[in-house]
Amino acid sequence: MLEQIEGTIAQFTADGAYDSRPMYEALAAAGVTDIRIMIPPKKTATVDRRAVGPWRQRNEAIERIGAVGRRQWRKESGAHRQAQAENGMYRYKRIIGDRLRALHCEAQKREALIAVNVINRMTALGMPEPVKVVA
To answer: How far is CA 115 from CA 32, 105, 107, in A?
Structure first.
C-alpha cells in the first residue's frame, strides 16, 4: 500500500494493531528518513536497546508513555486524531451507509462530498456554543 503513495510520507499514524516490526520495516523501506511514526505500542511492550532506524521511535514512545501515561502521550503525539478519524468514518457509515450508490467515479466523489457536508451540518447543530465566564 505504501508503494501507491506518490509523495513523500512525513507522518504515519495507525492504531495499535500495526505495532509490529514488519510495519516499521515497511515504513523504513519507503525511503523516508525523517518519517514521524505514531503507533501506540502494546501495553506489554518493552524497550529494545538494539533498535535502529524507525524502530527507535517505538522505544521513545514506550519511554514517554512510562513517564506521562498513555492518554497524555496520545495527546502529545497526535495519535488521538486517528481515533477521531475512525469515529468520523463510523458516523458516516451509520448515518449515510457503508457503500456509495453512484456508479461513476465523478458521481461518487459528489455523493461523498454531499454526505460529508450533511454530517458536518448535523454535528454543528448538536455542538454547544462555548461561552467565556469571568468570575
So the answer is: 35, 15, 12
Question: Contact at 8 Å (CB) between 10 and 32?
Answer: yes
Based on the fold, state whether residues 71 and 92 are members of the same structural domain. no
Per the CB < 8 A criterion, the answer to whether 89 and 96 are in contact is: no
Amino acid at 17: A
Range of the domain at 91: 81-126
How large is the C-alpha radius of gyration of the chain?
19
What global pTM score does this model have?
0.63
The answer to whether the beta carbons of residues 46 and 65 sit under 8 Å apart is no
The sign of the CA dihedral 55, 26, 38, 79 is: negative
Count: domains in the chain: 2
pLDDT of 113: 94
